[in-house]
Amino acid sequence: MSFDPSYEPGARRELGTYVFTAESIIEFARQFDPQRFHVDPEAAKKSVFGDLCASGWHTASVWMKLNIAASKIETRKAIEEGRPVPEFGPSPGFRNLRWFKPVYAGDELAYARIVRGTRALNSRPGWSILELTCEARNKDGELVMNFDSAALIKFPENHQTAP
Questions:
Q1: What is the pLDDT of residues 40-59, one digit of tens each?
Q2: DSSP 8-class letter at 104
Q3: Alpha-carbon distance 12 to 125, whole Å?
Q4: DSSP line for 51-93
Q5: Is 31 helix (H, G, I), strand (E, B) or coil?
Q6: Rounded distance, CA 101 to CA 11, Å?
């Protein structure tokens, strides 16, 4: 059920890229994940990673930052074009968060979200759950991180229902 093809199952939205610097890795880790391979370049060289690497939570947080920025751009564009804009509610959570490869200083990741589908909520008339697969890939296109996410979404009254 969607008025906009960007919410149809399989729709992929590229969210942007982010370059992880040693400084950003250390700054994030000092605040939120102070493990030695995230905060101490010398200790990191002696770790299983062999070098300073970003916290997985850092890679996931960048996804959220880029997702919000992309959503603001999409909303602004829809308003400018006179298209209806859905209302977003909170997320009931995420599942299956996995980190497949370490992210080192200098690595650039490309982030995306892919719509898996929507389903109406009987408990909240007019609202649906938007189900997404979220990911980050390195410059070689290798999957570095992914997770399944969901968010409440309320489509405008005049939206078109997919056949």
A1: 999 999 999 999 999 999 99
A2: B
A3: 27
A4: S-B--HHHHHHHHHHHHHHHHHHHHHHHHHTT---PEE----E
A5: helix
A6: 25
Question: Which residue from 117, 136, 139 is spatially nearest to 56, judged by alpha carbons?
Answer: 136
Q: What are the structure tokens assigned to 116, written together?
A: 């898996």
* Torsion sign over Cα 23, 26, 44, 53: negative
Predicted TM-score of the model (pTM): 0.90
Q: Using alpha carbons only, give the angle 116, 136, 71 rounded to the nearest 5 degrees.
A: 60
CA angle 53, 55, 59 (to 5 degrees): 105
Q: Are 122 and 37 in contact (CB under 8 A)?
A: no
* Backbone angles phi and psi of 104, in degrees to 5: -105, 165
Calculate the CA dihedral of residues 64, 66, 70, 73 and round it to 10 degrees.
Answer: 120
Per the prediction, the chain carries an average pLDDT of: 93
